[in-house]
Amino acid sequence: MKLARSRGVALVLGVVLVSLVSPRAAPGQPSQKDEQLLQKIQTDIFAGRWEQAQAQLEVAADRLSSHPDFHYLRAIMFHQLLEFSQAIEALERAVALAPAQARYYLLRGRIYEVVEDLSAAKRDYQKSIELAPNRSRAVLSLAKILVTEQRPGDAATVLEEALGRMSDSAALHHRLGRVQEMLGRPAEAAASYARAVELDPRLASAHGSLGRLYRENPEEPETLARSVHHLQQALRLDPQNPQWHYELGATYRRQQNWEAAQAALEKAAELAPKGRLIHYTLAEVYRQRGMGEKAKQARQRFTDLARKAEKDKLQRARLTAQLTRAEQMEFGGQTKEAVAVYQDILDSLDGLGDSTRGNQVYFALARLHLNAGEYLRAEEYIRRILEQQPNNGDNHHLYALTLLNLGRKAEATQELRTAIRLKPSEETFHNLLGNLLLDTGQVDAAIAAYQRAVELAPREPDYHLNLSAAYRRKGEEAGAAREWQAYRKLLREQRPRPN
Question: Hey, what's the torsion of the CAs at 311, 317, 318, 319, to 10 degrees?
Fold first, then answer.
């Protein structure tokens, strides 16, 4: 009996934790022991003990797969490891099990925002707000996206509506102040910042924003003194933030307090050596103090940084166009031409240090070489991907498929086991492992792998077919007949009906 093949390969390129002990409906209700385990895993994540947390999640996978917070914690782990595709997948499972948990949508929205799917991020933030209207985090995130989309008026509306429910939120008042500045309403912005400071005197960003605004809109002589006061408060609360050192230096410059301006700006340059505006302002301060050589050096530093920024901007724009062109060639069947363009992109990326785009190109080249049957070349690029993303189960799965095509079954089995350890809920991995084990005569282990694939995807006919073949190989005719009937039944159910 021919084995069904593993399905297509998926190529995928500060979380707030809350108490997990909450009332739930009976289905999937964990025991007290399981709740304690989830709390222990959460504690390990808080403490940055990733390997320990990941090991416990793997141990608990079978027992807690129907518990939504199990998948939520897996998503947090994947998020921390920058494995965004797997994090989203875990959150989809959590949402399916508990669709009324606002924090699931909040985290998924943040991940969508990271991968620049802003439409999906907005939908999730809006859903989180709908489910938990008196929590500010989703509101702040939604407002930020609206500002990014050049919609400050809509952002102001979202924030003002939220403040109608949460008038004591310093963070909301501060964000509203920033939006009001964008709308050209400095007096209202100053009032919002002042209210934020009143509500939370330890909010450094509110002090810093208010200090900067006072300097930029000095209505009376004492306004600059108030600017200094709030910027000093921001630095007392956040002493390593180069922005507040720069803003304070710029305020001292406005006061013509050149010595204090120099000290503040030099500290800003130390903390942010690539800050162009810092060096530009510092050159002026040096000139005022008669420090001609230092002024010349600061101006040259500003010029060099400005030129590099412009060059990088143009280069990134060119790379984006090249990527689009290469993808069009690839899907248009121009394989050789696409490979040449991807190679050019890799050469260009050397000076930019853009690992995200690099992995994107490695994936494309690996895919092209695999499809062309050039498995050694594909392996070269997949190994580079694994160097960058060693904790991504899909990467190890892809490597296993490549090794299989090279006839290196033992290494492929090892890679598949690693893939399953990293992503235990992916049924295609278990199915492929079963194929490998059965092919090498490990029948009992193959049956176990196929059974796991069937448990994870009971309506996938091919997995029942493979399990039937494994039972027949072992001589268990009853099991083989049962799985064969399941396979036939699913095929009938899934067969398109005639019109």
Answer: 110
Q: Which domain holds residue 259?
A: 201-290
What is the per-residue pLDDT for 13? 29
**Which of 37, 36, 67 has the alpha carbon at shortest distance from 52?**
37
Q: What is the DSSP string of 193-223?
A: HHHHHHH-TT-HHHHHHHHHHHHHS--STHH
**Structural domain includes residue 379:** no
The answer to whether residue 404 sits within a structural domain is: no
pTM over 0.70: no
Nearest to 70 by CA among 109, 30, 107: 30
pLDDT digits (tens, 9 = 90+) for 328-370: 887 777 878 888 888 888 777 765 555 556 777 888 888 788 7
Cα–Cα distance for residue pair 89/85, rounded to 1 Å: 6
- For residue 10, pLDDT over 90 is answered with no
pLDDT value at position 8? 34
222: in domain: yes
Quick one: which H or E segment has residue 495? none
Three-state secondary-structure class, residue 81: coil
Q: What is the C-alpha separation between 98 and 276, in angstroms, rounded?
A: 48
Measured CA to CA, the distance from residue 35 to residue 67 in angstroms comes to 10
Report which residue type is found at 404. Answer: L
Q: What span, in angstroms and rounded, lies between the C-alpha atoms of 172 and 184?
A: 18
Report the candidate in 132, 316, 402 with the shortest Cα–Cα distance to residue 107: 132
pLDDT of residue 193: 97
Q: Which of 114-118, 186-190, 429-433 has the lowest mean pLDDT?
A: 114-118
Q: Does some domain include residue 348? A: no
Specify the CATH number for the domain of residue 286: 1.25.40.10
- pLDDT (0 to 100) of residue 271: 92
Among the listed residues 59, 15, 16, the one whose alpha carbon sits nearest the alpha carbon of residue 38: 59
- Which of 490, 495, 445 has the alpha carbon at shortest distance from 463? 490
Number of domains in the chain: 1
**Residue, of 324 and 242, whose pLDDT is higher:** 242
